[in-house]
Design a protein that fits this description.
The protein folds into three domains: 13-286, TIM Barrel (Alpha-Beta Barrel); 303-390, no CATH class; 396-520, Alpha-isopropylmalate synthase LeuA, regulatory domain (Double Stranded RNA Binding Domain). The chain contains 16 helices and 16 strands. It has helices spanning 34-46, 61-73, 87-96, 113-120, 124-141, 157-170, 186-199, 219-228, 250-259, 275-286, 307-315, 343-352, 359-375, 381-393, 436-448, 492-520; strands at 15-18, 51-55, 78-84, 103-110, 145-150, 174-179, 207-212, 233-236, 303-304, 334-335, 399-407, 414-422, 425-433, 453-461, 470-478, 481-489. The strands form four sheets. It has an eight-stranded parallel β-barrel, surrounded by eight helices. Strands 11-12-13 form a three-stranded antiparallel sheet.
Length: 521
Amino acid sequence: MNQSAETVADRDRIVIFDTTLRDGEQSPGATMTFEEKLQVAEVLDSMGVDIIEAGFPIASQGDFEAVSTIAERAKNAVIAGLARAIPADIDRAGEAVRKAKRGRIHTFVSTSPIHLEHQMRKSQDEVLEIVTQTVTQARNLIDDVEWSGMDATRTPVDFLCRCVEAAIKAGATTINIPDTVGYCVPEEFGALIRTIRETVPGADKVVLSTHCHNDLGLAVANTIAGIEAGARQVECTINGIGERAGNAALEEIVMAIKTRGDVLPYATNIDTTRLTRASKLVAAVTSFPVQYNKAIVGKNAFAHESGIHQDGMLKHASTYEIMTPESVGVVESSLVMGKHSGRHAFAEKLKSLGYELGDNAFQDAFRRFKDLADRKKHVFDEDIEALVDDEMAHGADRFKVVALTVIAGTGGPQKATITLDVDGQHVTKEATGDGPVDATFKAIKDIVGEGPQLMLYQVSAVTEGTDAQAEVSVRLAEDGYSVTGKGADTDTLVASARAYVSAYNRLMVKRSRSSGALKAS
C-alpha cells in the first residue's frame, strides 16, 4: 500500500539533494546563464527539493554570484556549495552560502587507488589527514557539512571506512558515497552502504547519501539499493543530466518511491505534479532535449499508439499505465494516432473532434486514415480533420479519384494519367500539360467532358514537416456559378486532383438545383 509523507516515519523520509545546477551543468554544452540558474533554483525550491547544490563557488565569479544569490533567495531548501579539499575552496563555499536560511558546505576528496596514484599523487595517510583538516575547517564555518569520497565504489572498503570515520569525527553531518564512474551494480552498492552503516563508528548519527552516475544505466537502480541499505539522502538531477552518461534522475527516483510504496515504504517532500514543468525548464535552458521514451517526463511516457494498448486504455487506464499523467504534471494521456492504431481509438478520436459518421463513412475514413498513417510518421488531429472533411465532402459525389500517375521533371512535357470512378465505373484518361498540375486537370477535363474556368488554385500544409499533408483549394466558375473544392493528401498532386474533382461535383449540384428551379417555375 502506498504511504504518504504524513504516514511514513521521519527515519524513512528520503532527503532529495538536487545537483542539477552543479553536476548537471558540468555536462558538456549544458552551461546556464545567471538568470537561468536562478529560474531553475526557484522551481526546485518550490517543488520541495530539500537541498539544492547551487554550484561550485571557487570555479568562477559568476558561479560564486549565482550560489550567493540563490542562497539569499531560497525560501525552503538548504543551499549547498561544492568545495574541493582545499582551504581556499572551502572558504569560498562558506562565503557563498553565508546568507542562506540554511546553508551547507559540501567538500570532497578522492579515495580510490586509481585517483590517488594518477590524479592526486597522495598516500592513504595523507588523504586521511586532508579529510580531517578540511572537514574541520568547513565545520568551523557552518554547522551543516557534507563529505564525499570521490570514486568511493572503487576504493578498498577498509580504507573507505577509515575515511568516513575521520570525516564523522571532524564534524561531517552527511556522508556521501558516490559511484563516481557508474561502476557498481545494485547488489554491490547496497552492500557497501550497509557495511558503512553497520561498521563505522558514528555512522548511525549522520545521514548516509548516494550519488550514482549512469555509465552502465544503473544509476536509479543503485540509488534505490542504497536507500534500502540505509541511505536517507539521494543526490540526483532533473532529467538525469550530468557528467558523461549523467546522474540518477530525480523524477525516476521520486516516482518509483511514490508508485511502489508496497516495496519501497519511503516518502519525499517533492510535489510530483511539478516534475514535468521542471523537466521542460531544464531541457530548455540547457538545450538538452529529453528523449521521447524517457521515463516519467519523456514525450511518450503517457502516449499510446498500439491498437491493443489504445483499446485497453479506453476501457481502463490502469491496463497500461501504472501512474496517472496528472501525478507528474501532464494534463492527460495521449492516444497517438498512427499505423498501429485500431478502430476503437480512431472512433474515439473522431468523437473527440466532433465527428459522427455512419458505418460506411467510418469504414471509408478508417481505410484512408490507415493509408495516410503508412505514408506519414505523425498523424495529427488536423490531419484527421482534413481527411474526414474530405471524405464527408465526397461521400455522395458522382466523380471520385481512384488513381493518379504523374510524370514530371525538366526533360519534357509533363504527363498525367488519372482514373476516376464515374457512377460506379472506372474511366482512365491521359493528358500532357504545362506542368504536372496542368496535366492532371486536363486529364480530369477529358473524363468529365467539361471545362469550367479555374479561378483559384491554392496549396497549404495542414501540419509541419516534409511529410505534412497538403490541403489544396480549387475554385471553378461557370455560367455565373462559383464553387470551391478541397482535397488533402501527403501527395500534393493527389490533393490537387481531389480538390478539382470536389469542386466539379459541387458545380454539378448547383447546375441540377438551378435546372430544377427553372422547371418548377
